[in-house]
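Section 5: illustrative case.
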């Protein structure tokens, strides 16, 4: 049988209550994800990892507020509060996440001029992170995704997994959403249309 991997998306302090870009009830998924980690032979983590002054931060654009959008050379970009700055406490994994078993940590959003929601591609949808090659080389054909946030990093990762020919399942009870302007419903629709299995 083809090998499977669990991809745990961005379980970092800044996405949990009290963090800079807190997702409502984001920390509730930690015990659920810990159980999933025990169940999978292969576990991969992603870590949002921005340099200070990153172009996805509203604070980098005068007159712009968080959750507004801006036109970037690679397309429309939502602007965020400063979050997950490299080396800060906010960028660390949630202290309750039992991550030691993870075989790979994919850091993303580390280039100042471009954001990266997906674990596979940056937001230009063409600069790869290397994850697809890593999975293929290791014979992993199916990925299960969980984490934060459902309608951004989880959804874009699941869509790109499908585009790259992997089977993809999202465990919804192990995800929480930001839900900005209907983004949760829109991204749920896109995942269904791309044959992402939602369980
Ligand atoms: C995320 C917004 C900005 C996410 C990361 O993990 O969903 N969202 N950076
Ligand atoms: Zn980010």
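Designed sequence:
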């Amino acid at each position: 049988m083809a090998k499977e991997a669990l991809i745990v998306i961005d379980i970092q302090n800044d996405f949990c209550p009290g963090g800079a870009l807190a997702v409502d009830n984001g920390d509730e998924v930690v015990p659920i994800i810990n159980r999933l980690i025990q169940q999978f032979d292969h576990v991969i983590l992603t870590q949002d990892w921005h340099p200070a002054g990153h172009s996805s931060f509203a604070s980098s654009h005068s007159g712009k507020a968080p959750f507004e959008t801006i036109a970037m050379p690679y397309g429309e970009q939502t602007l965020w509060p400063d979050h997950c700055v490299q080396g800060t406490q906010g960028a660390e994994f949630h202290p309750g996440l039992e991550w030691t078993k993870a075989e790979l940590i994919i850091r993303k959003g580390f280039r100042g001029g471009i954001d990266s929601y997906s674990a596979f591609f940056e937001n230009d949808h063409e600069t790869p992170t290397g994850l697809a090659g890593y999975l293929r080389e290791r014979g992993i054909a199916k990925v299960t995704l969980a984490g934060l946030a459902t309608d951004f990093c989880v959804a874009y990762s699941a869509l790109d997994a499908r585009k790259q020919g992997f089977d993809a399942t999202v465990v919804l009870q192990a995800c929480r959403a930001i839900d900005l302007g209907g983004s949760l419903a829109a991204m749920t629709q896109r995942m269904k249309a791309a044959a992402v299995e939602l369980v």
